[in-house]
User: Fold these one by one.
Assistant:
Number 1:
Amino acid sequence: MFSDLVAFVLPGPTLGPVTNALSRHGAIIVNDATDPRVNIVVTVSPPSQDLTSLCRRSRVAIVYPAWVTDSVTLGGCIPYSSTSHTIFNPKMFLGIHVTTTQLPPFMRQNIAAAVTFFGGQYSPRLAPNTTLLITNGALSSKFDEARANGVRCEPVAWLQRCVDRGLLCPFTSPHAAEIGLEMLGELLGFSETCQEQPSNSILPLKRTVLGTK
């Protein structure tokens, strides 16, 4: 069941059974979180910022013990989706095919990087397999076509929340993308006077002239 896992379990008085369950079902247990083989961290509470940053950079899942025990109960690894099981899902966009519209070039590039880094796929064009359109809410033929084809439309702020949380946020609605471009900087923690961006921001630090496509 866990034969593909190399786990680091943060020490804790209640984690002995969890460690045993992982080992019994095939996981390799290591004592160093920096071991390059580690692909999952188990902890009873959110880890330190340093460990969280390490896991994000290395795309290592962070889960609660309940993920292990519930996976054992159900006879297979459950998805890294529920907040009761997961702190960070490095493949939160797996299976999601994203495109964008009405966004400046630098933002499109950063969205493409964020989506692919977290397991999704990005295309500059609306394709038959597109499942999500990221937009500023402005009208465009691409937006209209996406809506007509039943493609979900979400604002950039939704994607930023996913990146910040490390988990896929609930979709707001099939076509919720009502946010103006002038609001994006404020919502994403970026302003003219901002000297640094949030550590997980999908925006670059340097402000770029806003262009659209």
Number 2:
Amino acid sequence: MEEINKKIIKVARTKSGVPCLWESLMSFTDLKRSTIIVNKDGNPKPAFFINPDREKQALVPIAVGDRICKCFEDKNGIAISVFQIEEISHMKNEAIITPIYRKSSLVTDYTVPADFSKIVNSALSKFKNTEGRVISLPKINFKHED
């Protein structure tokens, strides 16, 4: 029965093959959608690429155990889904995720369980900031060894 909840998603990869997902913010006249990626403790991860002026704002490397939070806001309220990355394919640009928290309608701090409040508050903060603040940490700096 738990196989029904598993979902296969597409992942991006860097030129060197590191699996990644995009932190994003999309705003329409009647709908906002945000996606953030954090580690298993709910802390932001460093990104390979950051551009807060685009829909795809930060390219974030992913690992098994990381969490993805997707939030949607429209005239009826807010819907939140938190997923955990269970597996990342080495052969395909795919990952398997499972939902670990879902809530729809108007969400307040009082309705979000403590385990998910950090990631949910981060995702919701993207809605409140008209510049679409990037949640991921500053870019990863590559050091070339000679």
Number 3:
Amino acid sequence: MGVLIDALGALIVGAILMMITFQFQIQDTAHRMIHSVDLLDSGQEAMDELGKIISMAGIGVDPDSVVVTATDSTFAFRTRWNYGTGLLMVTSNVLQISLGDSTAVGRPIVITQGGATFNTLARILWIEELAFEFYRLDDSMVSFPTTATSRGDIRFLDMMMTLRKPPPRLGAQPLRTRIASRLYLMNSYLQGG
């Protein structure tokens, strides 16, 4: 009889431990999923905002002089659109997109126009890297470093963003996601055909 009671006790204790382990695994998976969704939302918001800004490249500017700077981490272009006011200007100005210095919550996207720095996209957190690849009208890639001639040929670009967030549980791997988008400089694309 004692053996039967010992066996039943072991079975009950084992079942309780299995349920506790299973519950911790479910909680860990749920936390990782919540953090992943948050990370993807931040990345999508950043890509949408940058897409809207880049779509204004070349308004009222000769298509061969739109791109001012084209490196793997910085993109600057001419436009008559004013980022600060959202209105068209009489003269063109240069708008630059790059990443700021590293912080505890990633690197902020920095927009610079006419010497003024706008941190309106700094609310988007966890950005680790922002990279650009530039292409000509015939789909050939523009190699780095760019020259005035090769910058004049740029008609679209690929923008890649890497986001990194600390894990929800200590000792786990950080969460990373990469988002890519192809953006056309439509004003140059249509004018320079």
